[in-house]
User: Fold this.
Amino acid sequence: MTNVFDTLIERGFIEQSSNEEEVRRLLGNPPVTFYIGFDPTADSLHIGHFIPILLMMHLQKAGHRPIALMGCGTTMVGDPSGRSDMRKMMSMEQINENCAVIKKQFSRFLYFDDKDGAIMENNADWLCKLNYVEFLRDYGKMFSVNRMLTAECFKRRMEVGLTFLEFNYMLMQAYDFLELYRRHKAVMQMGGNDQWSNILAGADLIRRVEGADAYALTVKLLLTSTGQKMGKTEKGALWLDRDKVTPYEFYQYWRNIDDADVYNSLSLLTFLPMAEIRELTAQGADINKAKARLAYEVTALVHSADDAARAQTAAAALFGGGGDISNMPTTVLTKDEFGAGMDILSLLLAAKLISGTSEGRRLIADGGVYLNNERVTDIRLKVDETAFDAGHALLRKGKKVYHKVELR
Assistant:
């Protein structure tokens, strides 16, 4: 039987681990209880979170037990890792609302139902109850300030000023590890590679307080071949919430990634066998076929197989000469709203394809706006009901962003 550690290495997940030989041995002998923390700083997970979630899915399939830790307590402080500015302070009410949404999203990826299933914890349950003076006496003495100041997670903040509030984040995350070790015998913490220093601090705290071994493992960030973070769209982050990014938009993002990013994305974001991935991306293979497979598989994982199939059908209608555009992103206008007609800039604004008229003028001047596959050249173009065939008109922004406008 293949050790899941080797599977993760082959698929490109692992960035670094403490005592790699022992980590590999442990992961080859399930079950091992491990955890990954997620601070609910927004009301949805995004594609950057999906790499650690897939890591949890691989490990659960291999017989290990994941703990998904909701960081409602740590979110009150804010993680300084990789940031040049302090995070915006959030109310506990907003944090809890975000947490409730994210918990529902997790139910799609891990099973929590039986006694051996995944565990969901919330660090506010213990962090918010700590007595500050007692915490400093019991655990603050375990941390060297000199050592903490060399940690990668603080470096960017040190350039502009690290607050004492943020400086406590490492202690809080380390205490999380200790608490989960005590509650569930979690012996391994995993996370993004920007969490390396924080995770090591927790493993060291367990060793000092409990005299037990604990381990750290970090995963690679989802980057393009040029080293840029993937998942950035014109609208912002590539969210996993269908109300923020529709399944069609999500599908189209992966369908249109650069050729050089397809192999890595298939390896990390799907469960396709590596032999099949190598075949799909081999020299001389049809890279568009590989992109379509990637888009389908990731959309099916994040949303559903039905959503992926509908997005695939809609894409084929646009790019492959098909006729079904029912699943395309759509804006519905009433005849009262539309009146005797709208100018093209107002129509683009109504469809949320532009943020303002200045952007619309630039797009039209650059030849980047199409109405029913005809390039728009006049910024004063008046669009009336004759543009709506069978009740809909098709807008296009650039080469790949399609949007349907329905008139009812």
About this structure: Residues 172 and 387 are 59 Å apart (CA to CA).
